[in-house]
Design goal:
mainly alpha; Topoisomerase I, Chain A, domain 4; about 75% helix; signal; Serum_amyloid_A; Serum amyloid A protein; Synovial_Prolif_Regulator
């Protein structure tokens, strides 16, 4: 419900046409898939010190989709970090994750965070 409300609000504020609104939705959906793929790869890799890389990569891939993808990446990243804070996980780690998220969304190379030895598959 919040997602739908947010999308409607964005369309009203930005005064987007119906065509660009549906384009935004498609980008957001694809961006959310990019975020899920990065999360799945992180779980599969199970490689110590790689979480910042996967944060940056997911946000980078989603943001490449366009404004909808960047929006989805930001919403998903913020929700995840807010949940971690509420459950008592380290605030310092959360800030580092958010820095990696912003790095990726800005279009900067996620390999900046890639740890040595992480398989090339990722």
């Amino acid at each position: 419900m919040k997602l739908l409300t947010g999308l409607v609000f964005c369309s009203l504020v930005l005064s987007v046409s119906s065509r660009s609104f549906f384009s935004f939705l498609g980008e957001a959906f694809d961006g959310a898939r990019d975020m899920w793929r990065a999360y799945s790869d992180m779980r599969e890799a199970n490689y110590i010190g790689s979480d910042k890389y996967f944060h940056a990569r997911g946000n980078y891939d989603a943001a490449k989709r366009g404004p909808g993808g960047a929006w989805a990446a930001e919403v998903i990243s913020n929700a995840r970090e807010n949940i971690q804070r509420l459950t008592g996980h380290g605030a310092e780690d959360s800030l580092a994750d958010q820095a990696a998220n912003k790095w990726g969304r800005s279009g900067r190379d996620p390999n900046h965070f890639r740890p040595a030895g992480l398989p090339e598959k990722y």
